[in-house]
Design goal:
globular; 17 helices; Arc Repressor Mutant, subunit A; alpha+beta; 42% helix
Amino acid sequence: MDKKAEELGIEWEIDGDDLADSNNLSMTYQMPAELKYVIPTQFLYGRQELKKNQRKIVALLLLHVKQQRDKLYEIDPIGKAEAAKLVSHEDRSQHFNEYVPSAKYLPTSSVKVIFGQDIIKKMFPEAKNLKRTVELALKAIMGRVVHEEDVDAKGNVRTKMYVIIPRAEIKKGEIELVIDHDAIAKLMVHSNGYSVTDLAIWTDLDSGYAQKLLEVLSKHKEKADGHIMDLDRFKFIFGCDYKTYTLADRERWIENGSIGERVEIGAYIYKNKKRVPLYPRFDSFRSRVLDVAFSSLINDSRGHWIPTDKPTDKDGNPLPPKGYELIRNGRTISHIKFCLKYVKNPSNKLTKKKEETDDKNDSKEINDTVLSLLKQCEHSFAKVVELGKKYDKPYEHVDEFYDEWVMNIGIYENTSRIVGYKPCSTVLEQIKTIKALLG
């Protein structure tokens, strides 16, 4: 190993087949004074079908790779030493962004990385049962596939798949990840650009879709408002286009003596020679993805992201803003327009936590349409709490209802804040109960 690399603590471990049996030296993530969550563009616009806590595990991976890339830049001959020859600050910055580590400094096999309690608690600040929350996320993330689109020599778009975390577990309160060496090499490439995401906001978001939305918006914060994206591309990037085979699918089929061993994890599922949509009905996609993602970000970004759309009902009465607009091509919805403005320094009023409410409702009148929406949400909260009481182990049923619960709570809290509506104590207690079920 390079002596300078060793001094900086860069010890790429060549891992064996079994994480639990590995006795070699491991890399330990070193908690920095300031966390900077950087996502390379190629990965940002790749397809990752992940829930919020699974994304937090991937975030740990990206934090580690960024840390190692910065260390390599210090000792690699084509890194900082080469940049010192450049005159302008702009040229040196560009050199750093386009830096790709020399092959001799990159691992040639999977790498094991250990994350301590400091960074784990930072990533999961509101987990009621931290160990269980992490265990479930690790189990779900293992073997997950990332889809990335690339253009070949002939100009054709090709989709490539790769696994980023083959194995993961929690031992003695620490997370141990085995990271694929090819994934590390890919994630160290920032030459195509990157997104710098505010982790303080990101970790508070209630939905994996909301986290992804913040990541995408953060690439061009000042230009996000009014940005238009093709709907099919949006679905691909957010991992909600078509159903794919998972590790659980293959394991289940193997146990049943089926053809699971020939199924490629991450591949799209076909039926009658057509890919199976994850959300066949657009209304389901809108309620479970769009409304969940945008309402969560608006509600939980502490005033940094505010909606700019002004929707109305059929009678012209104002409705709560959604943060997006749908664009049609004829009768078909073809694009989505982002209606979110970034506020670098929000006012104190906007930065107050959403749980804080005034002693009484705002004196301004709430129109019947909005009030009806709020009452429908309150009715759904009561039904959800009653549903939770029927199960001895409600955590086993969280995935089935997760998106709908998050959506209802997000819309309700955001709308209440905007119109000055104060929920009664019973409703607040029901919301608290549902959030506890979500973990």
